[in-house]
Amino acid sequence: MADSDDEDEVPSLEPGIVVEFNSYLAYPDAPADTEVLSWWKAHGGKLPVMSKMARQFLAVPAFTAGVERAFSRVSFMHSDLRKNLSKGTIQHSVMAAMN
């Protein structure tokens, strides 16, 4: 079993990652209209670990299907026939329906 002191320890970073991060911080700010993924692709040779992390994070498509689905469910639950439901009842119903 681990001591409570071990739980508070922050893992140390490899020196290469620290050097790469400091190198990244030394780059000048890119213009606001810069294509972010293109920037990381161009600098991936000098910043390989951070480039990989950036591509994994930035490649996640932004979509609102989950939010739209939730609003749709609420509209069904809060119809004219059910307009007397309390706010709490609607919240619990949506939570139960979405999970």
State the main characteristics.
2 domains; mainly alpha; elongated; 61% helix
Secondary structure: elements and pairs:
Layout: H1 4-7, H2 15-26, H3 36-43, H4 48-58, H5 65-77, H6 87-98
Helix pairs in contact: 3-4, 5-6
Organism: Cymbomonas tetramitiformis
Protein name: HAT C-terminal dimerisation domain-containing protein
GO molecular function: protein dimerization activity
General description of the model:
The protein has 99 residues and is mainly α. The longest helix is centred in the last third of the chain and has 13 residues, at 65-77. The protein has six helices and no strands. The radius of gyration is 24 Å and the shape is elongated. The chain has helices at residues 4-7, 15-26, 36-43, 48-58, 65-77, 87-98. Helix 3 runs antiparallel to helix 4 (48-58) and helix 5 (65-77) packs across helix 6 (87-98). The protein folds into two domains: 13-58, no CATH class; 65-98, no CATH class.
**Any low-confidence stretches, pLDDT <50, length ≥5?**
none
H and E string: HHHHHH
Instruction: Specify the biggest β-sheet.
Output: none
The outline comes out as elongated
Label the structural class. mainly alpha
End-to-end span in angstroms? 35 Å
The rounded Rg comes to 24 Å
Number of helices: 6
Mean pLDDT: 79
- Give a count of the beta strands, DSSP E runs of length 2 or more: 0
Number of separate structural domains: 2
Helix content: 55-70%
Q: How much β-strand is present in the residues?
A: under 5%
